[in-house]
Amino acid sequence: MDEVTSAIADPVRRDILMMLRGTALTAGEIARHFPISRPAISRHLRVLRESGLVHDELTGTRRLYRLDPAALAELAEWIAVLRAPVGWGHRLDALETEVRRTRRERAQPGAARHRDRTEDTA
């Protein structure tokens, strides 16, 4: 995960990743969008490739770069843990969900009777 976070810490690399969403581009095509040299773009692509965020593929005489979002999975999970409520916040969220579900069921006349019957048989 450290390689991924280091790679996406640079704004140029983040822009390159955004460009590669859903498409494959050569280094030259990527370089045209930035006011920096093509060798500098190649260095950024090397960092992205080494971190697993980008894969390259030789197609004829062209080397195409593609985004590989799988490398972001561990980082996304870590962020999800940080964003999740802790302790009472989590329990209150569950209570709020249950209250909303109950209100929704009571608003539908047949649903409450069906739920009561299924709870009685359980």
Automatic annotation (TrEMBL):
Molecular function (Gene Ontology), one example: DNA binding
Keyword Transcription: yes
Keyword Mitochondrion attributed: no
Region described as Disordered: 99-122
Domain HTH arsR-type, chain residue ranges per copy: 1-87
Keywords: DNA-binding, Transcription, Transcription regulation
Protein name: Transcriptional regulator
Annotated organism of origin: Streptomyces tsukubensis (strain DSM 42081 / NBRC 108919 / NRRL 18488 / 9993)
Organism lineage string: Bacteria, Bacillati, Actinomycetota, Actinomycetes, Kitasatosporales
